[in-house]
């Protein structure tokens, strides 16, 4: 799969978190996919390079995708579609927050369609049937095409450093990022444990099976025979807190810690939850060796949580 619609600033930086490493007596590095560049950056940019290329291949006039009001995926999809000259439609689940990512969606002239969270899939299909040459991008850009963006991300990581990371940790939600990472790690011969911190899925949802299916689809797309099993997909469900997009003391402490120690900002919905879990695992000696936190972006959502972040 070589065709892509180039919108990302790659490679993204990779560097050690010196102050935090000293504070926690650990060897902690960060991969800065918050700096991919498109509309304030984030991990979805890598996926969209291949999804938008596929949409253009199919002569799409409309792109349809879904998320919540602070969806990083929706913000970046709106930006990529704007650059491709394709009208973007965002099916957003209630409740509505009128700042952060939603402000950017409006500035990018995306057409917004509001509904209950449970009705988003049905709404996307109805839109696809009513619009000419519509191209549907799944939630989070998580299919075999989108996941390929993180197959190449792992190749990029291998080219950036000779260091072998014992653990690679990040926020996981729709599964495409982790599916691509696992495929990429296998393809590159990496021994790293690829660990997603769940921000919304629970063990009962059989998330590992969904990621396995996406990974298999991605392998078919790139015509690579990669030996995969469900056991390759590691997810920690211990840090869901009060629920998706609910800011608790753990996320606030994580945001403050990284800002104060390294002048790097996390977002309240995804990366703060994952980083809170990551730090707790490091402090409890559940993670050791060479550690990489993969920052998947989401910074604009900070501004929608101003009151929560400033409250005691």
TrEMBL record:
Transmembrane segments: none annotated. GO terms for molecular function: D-cysteine desulfhydrase activity. InterPro entries: ACCD_DCysDesulf, TrpB-like_PALP, TrpB-like_PALP_sf. Its cofactor is pyridoxal 5'-phosphate. The modification N6-(pyridoxal phosphate)lysine is found at residue 44. Residues 9-297 form the Tryptophan synthase beta chain-like PALP domain. Keywords: Pyridoxal phosphate. The keyword Ion transport does not apply. It holds the Pfam family PALP. This is D-cysteine desulfhydrase. It comes from Uabimicrobium amorphum. The lineage of its organism: Bacteria, Pseudomonadati, Planctomycetota, Candidatus Uabimicrobiia, Candidatus Uabimicrobiales.
